[in-house]
Design goal:
With about 140 residues, this protein is of the alpha/beta class. It contains four helices and six strands, in the order E-E-E-E-H-E-H-E-H-H.
Amino acid sequence: MIKTLLAFDYGTRNIGVASGQTLTRSATEQSPLKANDGVPDWVQVEKLLQEWKPDLVLVGLPLNMDGSESELSARARKFSNRLRGRFGVKVELVDERLTSFAAKGEVMERGGSRDYKNNPVDSIAARLILETWLHNQVTASRSD
């Protein structure tokens, strides 16, 4: 079954957004959402959900390198619970260790500067979260 996916890279100032689907196993960066101390404009979130009508929403879970949770992990969980509660969408958390680091590297590869405020690092990270989920689904189906 083909699924439409929407992924969020939760942050306190910006929330990265990416869309994708399982048919071609592809993901595309979208414009990030502004956040005020981690709180997005819920009207903007609702517009995204109405536009993409995702079968599944992915939220990056920022774990420490040892797998333990941080304060940001708790806030990302709260964000995912709010998505589920407000909009009735199915939400899955995805381990996002190293996605922000990889996203910053990708900005540099594209010739971007280290001025990450003017580069789409958050949405690149959201795309990497979605791609990680897609890769894990393929890997899981091969081991069945």
